[in-house]
Amino acid sequence: MNTGELEAVARSLVAPGKGILAADESAPTIEKRFKGIEVPSTEENRRAYRDLLFTTPGMSEFISGVILYDETIRQGSADGTPFTKVLERQGIVPGIKVDEGTKALTGFPGEKITEGLDGLRGRLPEYRSRGARFAKWRAVIDIGDGIPTRYCIEANAHALARYAALCQEAGLVPIVEPEVLMDGGHTVERCEEVTTEVLSLVYAQLTAHRVALEGTLLKPNMVVSGKLCPVQAGVPQVAEATVRTLRRCVPPAVPGIVFLSGGQTPRQATEHLNAMNSLGKQPWELSFSYGRALQDPVLKAWKGKAASVPAAKEAFLHRSKLNGAARYGKYSPAMEEAV
Ligand code: 5MM
Prior knowledge:
alpha/beta; 8-stranded parallel beta sheet; 14% strand
């Protein structure tokens, strides 16, 4: 796949009014989510839950792509149709999480490095043959006493760039996800400082690795106050700080920025995206690639009960629609009640 074809896929993922559903929770993460609704994390329950999401009528109006996990890309709908086909038939692009999770960064207490580069070149063609057209790799940066260190940011940026280059070689659009966590008591100013350093080093590495930025997407955190910070930045402040940081660090060659929600409530994530898209035209599309902010209401409505599937689908469609409106800066809190 040449750069033009990669760019076409990247642009389709940030088409107007649409965003990405991150349904790539690894086994330990989905177990945690299911525990919250007292559903055992069996393979069949995981399949049934993803089936519920991917067969929601009308979702393709607001969802451009879905990120799958290794197990999920091998599963299918109740009638046996592979999930990748279920999505493709709706015009939704399947994607795949290819990192293998975070591990402690030796010698740097409290910091993490994402693993999964070994053997990655060999794994990518199979994902592509199964229908994936984009991939995702998440790096995690924590803010705390004396961290993040420059070394941790550089190590993670280097891994992100190696991953991105290998994806493009295999004909997959890499979503580059450096997440500065919102855990802790740091201020919004500290989050802006760290996010600026992280994004600057990530783009330096992507450039050094000769990654074609036109065929990539960025999945960053928003610039927010730490969850435990006594002073919480309001919606306009988050929107301005996030857009300012992105304008300073992200080259205009990147087609789109698809935010993670990172522990924000579904409503906060929508309000922040809406406020950013109300600030005027930016060099890149500003969209979403939410996991929890799209799925929390669905899990609560479902609770593992077959009889609740229609209500859970309705909750998913509603949340997707609100985020679709936020893509245009046309969301309003009154729309929350409409379900
Ligand atoms: C940060 O997590 C990503 C976005 O989800 P949120 O919107 O909930 O923050 C998400 O794609 C994440 O990478 C996947 O859920 C996989 O997570 P794990 O921890 O299983 O690798």
